[in-house]
Amino acid sequence: MICKLGLSQELLWPVNAAPALTASFCEFRPRHFHGGVDVKTYGMVGPICRAVADGWVSRIKVSSVGYGRALYLTLADGRTAVYAHLNSFADPVEDLIREEQLRQRSYSVELFFDDAAKLPFRGGETVAYAGQSGTMHPHLHFEIRDPAERPLNPIFNGISVPDSIAPVLLALAVTPLDGSSTVEGDCQPRIYDPLTRLRRGVWSPGDPIGVSGRVGLSVDAYDKTNASDNVLAAYRFELRVDGETRWVTSYDRFDFDDNRKIELERDYRLMRRGKGVYHRLYRVLGNDLQFSTGDGAIEVGNQGAAPIEVEIVVSDAAGNPSVVALTLTSDKFSDDSRAVGGDPLIVYNPYSGSDQNRIHLDQFDGYIRLSAPPGIMGFNLDGNLNTFLSARPVEGGVAAVWVPTSAFNGRIEITAIRNDSIVVGREWVGLEPVFPGEPAKVCSEDSLFRIMVQPASLYDTALIRILPQPSYEVKGLVESVYRVEPRDQPLASAIKVSIIRRSGSTDDFGWGVYYYDSRMGWVFLGNEPEAGYLSANALSWELFGLMLDLDKPAIASVTLSRNDTLRTRRPSFLFGVSDKGSGLSAVGLNMKLDGETLPAEWDPPRGRFLFQPWWDLARGPHQLSVEARDRVGNTTSKTFDFTIITNH
């Protein structure tokens, strides 16, 4: 298939299979934008990947993670086509890679070529074979990069598929942008899920939405094409307010240095709270991404202000549009003709049925929302503030807004006052203000836990709260557990987490720093010794703790038994390796044949460690040894003696 590029140039479809995509450009991936498109290989490993135009191989990279086996083809106009997750390369490329792997005695290698005559390819020639290296499912990850190595949207740079299907609009979120703004009388986001389809291509959240002050809109949407049922991201998002365009996002290109900012461009708070992947249609602090233009904030006045008509136009790369049509009105006065729809992000819910007096704190951008059970008239903020905040009824209870000022010294006692003036809830709160561009050290009250914030770690001011979590501790196995807030505020770069054991020495073998994931359990971060602490870098605010791992990795041979007799001189060595504690990485795995290290492949998605010689082994006895060392040093080794009895 020929795909048009600009007005004159043409590119070939990169895989010898019917054109179809399984993922699109700039889709959300954890902490990064999807840098290309995923080309469908229909579940097959081995389809031919061909040069999309005349060019030459400028880079080859082989790794157990990330792009797996990847080939970089520089085109005549200076752009680069990237082929990733390959099963293997064309013969001249494969020969160079194998030579380098043997030289380094390592599976992971990388080669660069400045000479265009070294590995030239004509358009249509085979450059590689598609696979699933570094990933779970077979497909080709394909990119087009400009001469500055910035990813370009392949759909507008030579790759296209038939598409007459408009995006599907799932949900809308309306978010107050400061502590004096509300949505339906509450200072937190409100979600309208699902949207109602009014007619073909037009969706609505229902009755007018009551807001006051400054609010921002976000939308959850997906797209499909004619060629497959795979869910893709939409290409363009436009916000129109009373007919005026206020915001446009068009996913045409981005810079790899901006990858982390996907947590600003998408609504990180909604993602962290499990609500979905919402595209923000307004700018937040730190978001200077060039594929978005405008400010997007919408100002709604008080009683008497005219309703505001809003359209959100979501389009795919083929130009098929879908629209969310909504009306914003003031929530400062009641309107019996208007039904209140949607759901608040947070509904007050005590941790247990017997604890009806707990005060909840939730951080938002620049303010804190306090909530409590029904019947509370307000909150006293004691300490050095001596402030009373009146509460208003909200779903599930009552709430009030606190905007910390420079008078706040980091620690405060909050009491909930019942309507009859009785104090029914009390909580001491320690919040440490940390500012962008400034280093900071924040410690728990018992000094067993600390966080080092670097000058580049924050986009916005953070009020850090460290809470002991003894309910997660298991004697002799899990210790010193702390939850760090604000858990749904994104980080620009890593923070350092350091923890001391509550009992025993942190120097004891097997301990490491972990964070807790509700799906995966405890996830290892690191165990760097540092002045009595164990330290590790973290990329998000989490529930952290120390965990002991004394379990050795498991090694199971799939293709080889001890004292085997083999009738091939190129046997396959395949092992299943796994670890249920700190986990495995390529640097902790080693395979040796007759004492020489082999460039064996670690395949993390399938838990395999494998190698097949591309040369004939000598007839007679051999010894293969396999070693697996987990991230804290637990080690398992196995040795297999075998004999080759054939000359062929």
Overview of this protein structure:
The protein has 648 residues and is mostly beta strands. It has five domains: 2-156, Distorted Sandwich (Glucose Permease (Domain IIA)), CATH 2.70.70.10; 168-344, no CATH class; 360-421; 433-548, Chondroitinase Ac, Chain A, domain 3 (Sandwich); 554-644, Immunoglobulin-like (Sandwich). Helices cover 4% and strands 47% of the residues. The protein is built from three helices and 58 strands. The strands form ten sheets. The chain has a 15-stranded mixed sheet that branches. Strands 3, 6, 7, 8, 9, 10, 11, 12, 13, 14 and 15 form an eleven-stranded antiparallel sheet that branches. A hairpin with a 5-residue loop joins strand 28 and strand 29. The radius of gyration is 29 Å and the shape is globular. It starts with a strand and ends with a strand.
